[in-house]
Design the sequence.
């Protein structure tokens, strides 16, 4: 065996091709730099009929769309990977039950995500100053705003100008009209004084440029759009980057092991395994950018133990892997008798909600400090596995006889179709040093790389927030004249709080700061310890905010990439 | 074609295509059917292709067992005035597949079928598919209503609940089922709001200020441009 070194020295080697890696690739290529993109999964283009699942019918899946071990969100979902990966375990400390979703494919998790694209607000960067918990970011909204603005125009996001203080407006495409269940929601929320505004999703409701199509309302963004009308990192960033000024070479099925260091204290590239033939390689670059996801980038750093970096690379502070946090989540559903026996028409909208509620609460009157937003679902969607299995739940609510067969069943199906509503609360978890991932000292994956081990728990902050979500959801369903499904989750059940990682918004493992003793990278996401290593995934987040993280990952990746270009020009790195 | 004829066709179809041994199995009769069932057209990865091919090849329900399943499926969803029944929508094949895909379903389904046959033998001296339709309905009536069924019927009730759910899923995820439901999505569209008659029926309306924020579908193909304040100009 030998290690094969790339003959070429790239300007930058980028690890990962999702939101952060994709944006870095685009910006560096636009600046004329030559980059290598190292992706652990296969090539993927949403347009390729060989891999496409969009616009298929339920019967084309023998299991009618049911989830499998290879597609945890259903047989048509466009994520190769999931909560578990063959040959790549994760381990837990104590009674921790953390979940880690990994998509191994070009574009990563952006191929199936919810496209919810929310800017962080001014308060979200300075929460310690407001409520004393966690830490402030070294940067503020004004530093990121220009990038959010550019991002809106480059990638496209629909929404509406609302003038809310902590939910900043941007350059929005027009919003889709609410559907019937969303009109019921608006009406119900109004009674409770909960604001509702058009949702903000990176889906093109209007033409943005000549390279991408316009949304045709199939509600299937989770299958990745063959018209490139939704944001996926491959179709929107990496493919355009290949046509831009720089050279972009994509290395797929390549699993990065560690960052390789030179004698001068600078990184010289990354070592990786070609998964197709098991060969070991080193990809050389003047700059190394880690964008493998918050946890996977932390893993690479921790596994890069070299002279002077016995603790792992960039870890003189000892905080790599720490301050891991995911959005809080708690969900509830119900059904609205007034929506029974609906007239059936084509109600497929964009791939997700058309309306949502940004955080409205006054924390000084609540027993928790941070907020959450409410996501809404419902409507007459395409049937899949599980359709019709819950009829007796409805009959019970209506006091009608359960069970039966024949014509009665056909009537029941039609009576209840499209009469359900569901809510997901997605909120801010307080970042804590004692929530972390680290290398398991004993367990390796199939390539011999030490795996991640997790320690994660919730404080009363998160639990009380989930309790508030559940109360709110019950009040909302009640205000809509509906009936809530199931029983109120108890304190023992953490009020229905999703497990850590289950919302798939892991951030914070390589947090930024001005003090190298308490942070991994600086305000430009450059390692304090190694000047030519940057991180452009969600690792550098100091806190999560009650917003989903993707839009901020990309804005910050753009900002960090500008810094890389500038530093290379100045020959500082 | 009545239910029994449908069943007969189903069984003959499988005999014609798949008879290799004494235990004939119903599943993929033709290459075309295998291809279709494998979802070749839905972008499978090599791993998925192989896994699903193996599931297709695996033998589970025997012809006799499948006969009981098909009979029940057609009692659960017989043809209506306007739509075919469960067998027309190949629901028994779906149930045979899903039990292989979710192995935990195998014993409940096999055991449920055996319970049905045993109940039929006890009451009428013949297996479930050999008794008359009226006799079949007599047994089904005793297990189809969970609220009022007697304690001794519980295993049958559980089985019938499961068969009802699987039949509904298997049926309403086919073209026949989608047409029966009236589903008209999964095709290119330009969503432009709830139809007026539906708004009226539900006492709903769109607020003017809200509509001002929404897409004008006439302008959707005109490239977006904004002023410096983020106001959309086009």
Sequence:
């Amino acid at each position: 065996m030998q290690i094969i070194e790339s003959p070429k020295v790239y300007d930058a080697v980028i690890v990962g091709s999702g939101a952060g890696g994709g944006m870095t690739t685009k910006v560096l290529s636009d600046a004329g730099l030559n980059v290598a993109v190292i992706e652990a999964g296969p090539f993927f283009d949403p347009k390729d009929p060989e891999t496409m699942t969009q616009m298929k019918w339920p019967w084309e899946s023998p299991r009618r769309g049911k989830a499998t071990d290879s597609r945890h969100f259903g047989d048509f979902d466009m994520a190769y990977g999931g909560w578990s990966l063959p040959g790549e375990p994760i381990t837990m400390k104590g009674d921790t039950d953390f979940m880690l979703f990994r998509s191994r494919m070009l574009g990563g998790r952006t191929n199936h995500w919810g496209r919810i694209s929310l800017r962080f607000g001014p308060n979200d960067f300075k929460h310690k100053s407001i409520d004393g918990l966690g830490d402030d970011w070294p940067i503020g909204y004004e530093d990121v705003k220009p990038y959010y603005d550019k991002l809106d125009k480059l990638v496209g996001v629909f929404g509406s100008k609302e003038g809310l203080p902590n939910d900043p407006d941007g350059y929005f495409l027009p919003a889709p009209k609410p559907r019937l269940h969303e009109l019921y929601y608006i009406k119900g929320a109004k009674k409770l004084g909960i604001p509702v505004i058009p949702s903000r999703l990176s889906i093109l409701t209007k033409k943005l440029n000549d390279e991408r199509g316009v949304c045709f309302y199939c509600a299937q963004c989770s299958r990745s759009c063959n018209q490139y009308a939704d944001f996926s990192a491959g179709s929107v960033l990496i493919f355009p980057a290949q046509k831009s000024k720089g050279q972009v070479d994509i290395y797929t099925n390549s699993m990065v092991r560690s960052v390789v260091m030179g004698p001068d204290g600078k990184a010289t590239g990354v070592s990786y395994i070609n998964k197709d033939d098991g060969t070991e390689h080193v990809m050389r670059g003047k700059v190394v950018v880690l964008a493998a996801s918050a946890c996977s980038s932390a893993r690479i750093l921790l596994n890069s133990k070299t002279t002077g970096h016995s603790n792992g690379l960039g870890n003189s502070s000892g905080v790599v892997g720490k301050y891991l946090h995911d959005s809080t989540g708690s969900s509830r559903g119900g059904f609205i008798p007034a929506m029974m026996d609906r007239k059936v028409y084509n109600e497929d909208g964009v791939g997700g909600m058309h309306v949502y509620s940004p955080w409205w609460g006054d924390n000084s009157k609540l027993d928790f400090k941070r907020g959450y937003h409410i996501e809404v679902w419902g409507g007459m969607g395409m049937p899949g596995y599980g359709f019709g299995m819950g009829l007796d739940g409805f009959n019970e609510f209506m006091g009608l006889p359960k069970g039966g067969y024949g014509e009665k069943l056909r009537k029941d199906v039609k009576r209840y179709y499209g009469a359900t509503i569901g809510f997901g609360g997605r909120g801010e978890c307080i970042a804590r040093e004692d929530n972390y991932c680290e290398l398991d000292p004993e367990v390796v994956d199939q390539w011999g790389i030490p795996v991640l081990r997790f320690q994660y728990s919730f404080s009363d902050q998160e639990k009380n927030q989930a309790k508030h979500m559940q109360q709110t959801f019950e009040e909302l369903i009640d205000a809509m004249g509906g009936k809530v499904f199931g029983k109120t989750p108890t304190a023992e059940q953490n009020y229905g709080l999703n497990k850590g990682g289950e919302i798939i918004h892991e951030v914070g493992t390589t947090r930024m700061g001005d003090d190298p003793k308490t942070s991994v990278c600086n305000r430009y996401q450059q390692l304090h310890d190694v000047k030519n290593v940057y991180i452009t995934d969600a690792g550098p987040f100091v806190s999560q905010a009650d917003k989903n993280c993707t839009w901020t990952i990309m804005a910050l990746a753009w900002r960090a990439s500008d810094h890389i270009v500038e530093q290379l020009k100045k020959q500082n790195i | 074609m009545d239910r029994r004829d449908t069943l007969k066709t189903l069984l003959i179809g499988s005999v014609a295509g798949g008879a290799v041994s004494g235990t004939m199995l119903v599943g993929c009769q033709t290459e075309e059917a295998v291809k279709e069932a494998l979802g070749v057209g839905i972008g499978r990865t090599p791993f998925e292709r192989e896994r699903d091919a193996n599931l297709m090849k695996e033998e589970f329900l025997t012809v006799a067992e499948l006969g009981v399943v098909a009979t029940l499926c057609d009692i659960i969803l017989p043809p209506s005035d306007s739509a075919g029944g469960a067998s027309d929508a190949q629901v028994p094949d779906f149930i045979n597949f899903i039990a292989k895909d979710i192995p935990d379903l195998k014993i409940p389904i096999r055991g449920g079928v055996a319970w049905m046959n045993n109940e039929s033998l006890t009451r009428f001296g013949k297996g479930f598919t050999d008794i008359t339709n009226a006799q079949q309905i007599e047994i089904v009536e005793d297990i189809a209503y969970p609220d009022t069924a007697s304690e001794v019927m519980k295993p049958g009730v559980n089985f019938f609940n499961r068969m009802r759910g699987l039949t509904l899923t298997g049926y309403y995820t086919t073209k026949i089922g989608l047409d029966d439901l009236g589903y008209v999505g999964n095709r290119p569209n330009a969503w432009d709001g709830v139809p007026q008659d539906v708004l009226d029926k539900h006492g709903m309306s769109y607020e003017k200020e809200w509509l001002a924020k929404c897409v004008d579908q006439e302008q959707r193909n005109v490239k977006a441009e904004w002023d410096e304040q983020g106001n959309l100009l086009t």
Observations:
- The first strand of chain A starts at residue 3 and ends at 15.
- The two ends of chain A are 33 Å apart (CA to CA).
- The mean pLDDT of chain A is 97.
- Chain A touches chain B through 91 residues (CB under 8 Å).
